[in-house]
Structure formats: C-alpha cells, structure tokens
Amino acid sequence: MSQKRRVVVTGMGVVSCFGNDVDLFYEQLLAGKSGIVPIEEFPCEELPTRFAGVIRGFDVGDYMDKKQARRVDPFIRYVMVGGKKALEHAQLDLGRLDKRRSGIVIGSGMGGMNVFYDGVETILTKSFKRLTPFFVPYIITNMGGALLAIDTGFKGPNFSISTACATSNFCIHAAAEQIQQG
C-alpha cells in the first residue's frame, strides 16, 4: 500500500463576523464570543429574523483594486481579501510558484446576494434589458475564486463547493486531495 502525500496548511486568511484577522478570529472563538449581532445594514423590521453574523469593519485595503472592489459583490471582495491574506500569511513567493500547479478551492453557501437582489429589483422596476451583464458572473459561487486566480495567475484547479454548514470542511478536504494527487 502506498503512503499518502502529507498535506499541511501553510497560510490562513479570514473575513468573518468574528473579525477580519486570523488572530482576532481565533481569540473570539476561544473566548466563546458570538459573532451574531442585530442587523443594522438594512431595514429588517418586517423580517422574522433581525440578527445575523454580519461582517463589519471590512476594508479591501491594498489587497484589491478600489475600482474593481466597487463593482463587485461583497462576497467577491471577501474571497479576494481572504485568499490574498492566506497567501501573505504563508509567506509564499508567488514568483517562484508553478502557477500551472497552483489552484483555488473556495466555498460559499451562496454567491453574490447583493448583486442578485439589485438585479431582481432592476427587472421588477425597470426592465430585464437594464440588467447588468455582470449579473450572472457576480452571483455564482465560483466567481470569487476565478477572479482570485486571474489576479494571482494561478492556472491549476479552480472550483467552488457549496454544502451548507459543512462547506469549509469539504473545501479543505478537496484541496488536500488535489495536493495529494499531484
């Protein structure tokens, strides 16, 4: 029986309701804090639920072009920044990586919901002809990984996984398998 190639996590990046930094995220978890807060980002008085795990204090910083950041859904901004923070944390020299063997596996329960909402509103109040041509690309879950791959030059496997609450575990497993298989 052949021995499996060992896989280790070399870098982490996080954008979450616990904070947008790995150390802060971990501290909040250890302290047993909840990231669930009352929703203040939009009117929700008519909704049955008025609390959520809201990402606050997020800024793309130097991780993303400001013009592009304004155009895309927050979901894509989170992927771009989280992914680049993971690469930075790993201290990888992108110039020395074999980009053909470097890939991206991301996970999300849903894609760009802000773009989706705006698109539906446009269809209902104006016309489908006024819908942005980026409507579908910016709502699908793999677009964050696709744009991150374009930005980093990664040309290896690139896909997204959506399995509800188990998504992150499936992503780690899938990425580890990709590495093990060479």
Keywords:
182 residues, mainly alpha, Peroxisomal Thiolase, Chain A, domain 1, two-stranded antiparallel ribbon, 7 helices, 4 strands
- Spans of at least 5 consecutive residues whose pLDDT stays below 50 are none
Strand order of the largest sheet: 1-2
Tally of DSSP β-strands:
4
CATH topological fold name of the largest domain: Peroxisomal Thiolase, Chain A, domain 1
Strand content: 5-15%
- Average pLDDT works out at 93
| Number of alpha- plus pi-helical segments | 7
Largest sheet: 2 strands, antiparallel
**Termini separation:** 18 Å
In total, the number of domains comes to 2
Helix content range:
40-55%
Oligomer: single chain
What do we call the CATH homologous superfamily of the largest domain? Thiolase/Chalcone synthase
Computed over alpha carbons, the radius of gyration is 18 Å
Would you write up a description of this structure?
The protein has 7 helices and 4 strands, in the order H-E-E-H-H-E-H-H-H-E-H. Helix 3 crosses helix 6 (143-152). It has helices at 22-30, 66-71, 74-90, 113-125, 135-139, 143-152, 167-180, and strands spanning 37-38, 51-52, 104-107, 158-161. It folds into 2 domains: 12-56, no CATH class; 59-180, Thiolase/Chalcone synthase (Peroxisomal Thiolase, Chain A, domain 1, 3-Layer(aba) Sandwich), CATH 3.40.47.10. With 182 residues, the chain is mainly alpha-helical. The longest helix is centred in the middle third of the chain and has 17 residues, at 74-90.
